[in-house]
Every structure is written in C-alpha cells, then in structure tokens.
Design brief:
Blueprint (H helix, E strand, L loop, with lengths): L3 H9 L3 H7 L1 E5 L1 H9 L6 E4 L9 E2 L2 H7 L8 E6 L14 E6 L4 H13 L4 E4 L9 H7 L8 E3 L2 H14 L6 E10 L9 E6 L15 E4 L11 H12 L4
Parallel strand pairs: 2-3, 5-6, 5-9, 6-7, 8-9, 8-10
Antiparallel strand pairs: 1-4, 2-4
C-alpha cells in the first residue's frame, strides 16, 4: 500500500520543476493511460482502483486516488513514466518532414500539434525551449496517444536551423525551411515536399525574429473572412495536408 508521502509525491508532479527533479511525469485517466499502453510506451508505475481493468503495479482505494489525483474528479488510474529527452541526431532535419514549434505555450495546442504530426506521419517534432512542457499532463492528454508515437526533441531553433541550412547547402542540397507568416506565399499553390522543415510560430506573436534569417520561404493559408488568425494547430494541420506527401 502506498504511503501518504508517496501519494503526495504523485500529486506534486503537477509542477514542472518537480517533474524535472524527479525525472518522472504523471498521466491520469482511463482513456489516455490505455492509449499510451496500446502505443507501447513503457510506464514506470500504474496506480489504479478496482474499477480499472488494465494492468497495474499498485491498487489504491478511492480515497487514496483522490489524494494522489491531479483532477477534482479522480479517475480510476494514474500512471508514472520516466522523462526521456533524446538528442536530435546530427543532420536529421535534412531528411523527411520536420515540424518545428516556436514558442507554442498553450499545452492543449502542443498536444494537438503532436496529433497532427502523427496523423500526417511527420518524421519528427522539434520544440523550442519556451514551448509548453512536453511532459505536462495537459500536453499528453491533448495528444490522445500521439505523445508515445511521435519522435519529439527540444532544441534552440535559431542555431539548429542555421546549422541545418548550412550543412544542406554544403551537401549540394536545397532544403526548404518554411515559416508560417500572414504575408507568405499561398501554401495551396505549392506541391508536396519529401524533405522540409515547417516552422509554426505562436498564434499571438508569430515567428521569432531570430528565426527569420534562416527561413528560406514564408507561407500562408489564404484568408477570405475577417478572423485575425488561425489557431496554431489548425494552421499546422492545413499546411501538413497540403505539403505532406502521400505515404
């Protein structure tokens, strides 16, 4: 039976600093835990009440789950995973399609962007350090299991794009690095691409000024109405639908 201290530790993992210090993240809910298990993500521990029919390492009473839960209405299962931040292989962005997220701070948007990448078989997603934490429960829940299937990396984008562009040029390879911008070229007039980096800026601020020198072409989704902007995840889905090649 878990101690009170262990239950408090589970609850404390809502905080990013605690997650990083412990090297653990928490995910709660029958659907999302089931999706992560189905995707083959190794989970360190699974705490569950008798209502959960899946695998578990610890059984909790309803009262114990309420003390550990991150939600006002606890679910029947809560799982711990180990934080793993893989290193982006050198030269990886020169091959396949990459989605680079620049200052996307809303966790729901980041999670939905992972779903978009999963849907269109994008090869990798790179998050700038000032994006929402990849291991926050809101990101994982919004990804609907894509968190376990999409290759994700965190990197400072400006030097990464500069190095990628320079190495592609040295190899005699022209790599499109596309930045989403209202003043860009119509994405619907473009052909699908096998190799490219697509940079999605924050809805409120757009692309970071530091990234613009490394963008080879800006692209946009034509606006026919009066809306000021599109949600970042919606924009990414439209762009990926146009540019991702059939698989």
């Amino acid at each position: 039976m878990p101690s009170k201290a262990e239950l408090q530790k589970l609850r404390s993992l809502r905080d990013k600093k605690t997650r990083e210090a412990q090297g653990l993240f928490v995910v709660e809910g029958e659907k999302v835990v089931g999706e992560l298990l189905a995707a083959g993500l190794p989970l360190h521990k699974i705490y569950a009440t008798e209502q959960w029919s899946g695998p578990r390492t610890h059984t909790l009473s309803a009262a114990e789950m309420a003390r550990a839960s991150h939600f006002p209405t606890p679910s029947s299962v809560l799982a711990l995973g180990r934080i793993h931040r893989p290193t982006l292989p050198e030269g990886a962005l020169r091959h396949g399609l990459s989605l680079a997220l620049d200052r996307i701070q809303d966790p729901g948007n980041v999670g939905t962007l992972l779903r978009v990448a999963d849907w269109y078989a994008i090869d990798r997603v790179i998050l700038s350090p000032d994006c929402a934490d990849l291991f926050s429960q809101k990101v994982i829940n919004a990804s609907k299991g894509s968190f376990a299937r999409v290759a994700c990396y965190t990197a400072t984008l400006a030097p990464l794009l500069a190095e990628t562009r320079a190495s592609a040029h040295s190899a005699g390879h022209t790599l499109p690095i596309l930045g989403c911008d209202l003043a860009g070229d119509n994405v619907h007039a473009m052909a699908a691409l096998s190799d490219a980096v697509i940079v999605i800026g924050s809805e409120g601020q757009g692309l970071s000024p530091a990234l613009r020198p490394h963008i080879t072409r800006t692209i946009t989704i034509p606006r026919y109405g009066a809306a000021e902007s599109l949600n970042a995840a919606i924009a990414a889905a439209i762009i990926c639908d146009r540019l991702a090649p059939p698989r």
